[in-house]
Amino acid sequence: MIVVREIAKLRNEIRKQQIASGLDKKIGFVPTMGFLHEGHASLLRKARELADIVVLSIFVNPIQFGPNEDYERYPRDEERDLALAEREGVDIVFMPSVEEMYPQPIKTKVSVSADLTSQLCGASRPGHFDGVTTVVSKLFHIVDPDYAFFGLKDAQQVAVIQQMVQDLSMKVTIVPCPIVREQDGLALSSRNVYLEPEQRKQALVLSQSLQLAKQLIATNDNITIGELQEQVVRHIESAPLAVIDYVQILNFPELSLIHPSTPLSFVQNQIIIALAVKFGSTRLIDNVVLHGKDVVSHV
Amino acid sequence: MIVVREIAKLRNEIRKQQIASGLDKKIGFVPTMGFLHEGHASLLRKARELADIVVLSIFVNPIQFGPNEDYERYPRDEERDLALAEREGVDIVFMPSVEEMYPQPIKTKVSVSADLTSQLCGASRPGHFDGVTTVVSKLFHIVDPDYAFFGLKDAQQVAVIQQMVQDLSMKVTIVPCPIVREQDGLALSSRNVYLEPEQRKQALVLSQSLQLAKQLIATNDNITIGELQEQVVRHIESAPLAVIDYVQILNFPELSLIHPSTPLSFVQNQIIIALAVKFGSTRLIDNVVLHGKDVVSHV
């Protein structure tokens, strides 16, 4: 496994490995902010399966954090990340500094329109998705991947990036991968380390409320979008430390609104039940994508 | 010469020609809006010189025109364009329809910040450069060129695209090419066909005023930026049909302001003298890039 920190060196290394293994060899790319967990490991395994050369990037991207967010204290552990990468058979790790990625303040922005980026996480994190699409676009230009792998925990991010790739005719194929959870159901996130023990216990209401929604859908043919949303909210509120940021049910991946009085059985398309809940200053997200009564893991 | 109208076919054709001629062969790309003239021909010749496979695109891009601009009446002549392309040894012409480029309304925008895009042509054409950077970015993803060729008549466009390429780490090298002029000095433009005979005659004040500026610089060591600008304005105003949109002298390619009282001999960097002048509803642009007393054709 090769670790490179400079853009030019990364390009050379990829080119070298491509020439060595045949120019028709496919590049699989997993962009991350590091502090890797089993969710990231599942992306790397999928990349290993589909691609010939697996590139992992680790870069805590300042331009996707708001001024009052956790950029400075975002958890970092280079050594552990490299061990996990090695274990998962990564070929090349790209770990650039902020100066390498943004030698001058960046003047170019790639943005996806408000109908995809202004609600859900975009509402409480203004500018966040512009930072994501800009850095992902830059990373795609540097790595030039055939496939890029993203976790569905950030389902809105997947929808936004798919839109960007389609609109700008990028050659990469986006591969969305299922959410990975702890044994007790908590979706894996680098931010879980922020949780105090009691917060960690109560954080189970996120996954539980999605389970509840699935049960309600399975047993009640006439339930409306509004009733479903209300039940999810009620369950989350049963945790005294939980402060709801949003609980929304939208068409997926369009992220367009569905009228609350619509019976679920009338909805033809995929929907997402998406949650963001704060425990103290830690904001957790979770979601499920459904098509009628069926859970969809691929989008 | 192959003519293709679909993105997928273009990709296949480029790939085919690359495999035939060796994968290390360089792709040169000339993006245009068609109605080709000798200015475009000079770009194609430069591409032929530097690259192995020359791709020309012809696409009148609706998203870079304002609502009251000349998108509908922009001149088109497919047959003549293809003859010129053939003559210049183009390998592949890409002529997509609007539906092929934008099957749905595009939700993704690539934009360069206001310090490069809000003055000069950006001031009278709001949103214009967003349309340019978005379509150029999309075309770059489709063609994947090693070199792309742009005329310096649109000097601000060159500066904006260079910024985009650098910020987003696109692999392409931008090759700016000198302005091509009629015998009498008028800079070539597809829009010159709009000019009535008397407007065409008076349109010479653009290039003449730039010649005048060069003479003033050569003979007057103490001339200030403000005096130079005033002389250029005065000369253009000698044409009764000319209506000045802007006459600006800026640092190039940063496009930052220079205080009018600054003597030219104090300016260390490249500067641009940029003009936009309307004759009736036809807006013409012209410019010269200088470094001290020297005319710079490469940036």
Identify the notable features of this structure and list them briefly.
six-stranded parallel sheet; alpha/beta; Rossmann fold; four-stranded antiparallel sheet; homodimer; Pantoate--beta-alanine Ligase, Chain: A,domain 2; 11 helices; 2 domains; 299 residues
Structure explained in plain terms:
- Chains A, B: Pathway: Cofactor biosynthesis; (R)-pantothenate biosynthesis; (R)-pantothenate from (R)-pantoate and beta-alanine: step 1/1.
- Chains A, B: This is Pantothenate synthetase.
- Chains A, B: The active site is at 40 (proton donor).
- The structure is a homodimer of 299-residue chains.
- With 299 residues, chain A is an alpha/beta fold.
- Chain A has helices at residues 7-21, 38-50, 78-87, 98-101, 114-117, 121-124, 128-143, 155-167, 197-202, 204-219, 225-237, and strands at 2-4, 27-32, 53-58, 92-94, 108-112, 147-151, 173-177, 242-251, 270-279, 282-291, 294-295.
- A 6-stranded parallel β-sheet of chain A has the order 1-4-3-2-6-7, with helices on both faces. A 4-stranded antiparallel β-sheet of chain A has the order 8-9-10-11, with helices on one face.
- The relative contact order of chain A is 0.13.
- The model of chain A has no long low-confidence stretch (mean pLDDT 95).
- The A-B interface holds A 7, 11, 23, 106-113, 115-116, 133-134, 137-138, 141-142, 144, 163-164, 167-171 and B 7, 11, 23, 106-113, 115-116, 133-134, 137-138, 141-142, 144, 163-164, 167-171.
- Strand 5 (108-112) of chain A pairs antiparallel with strand 5 of chain B.
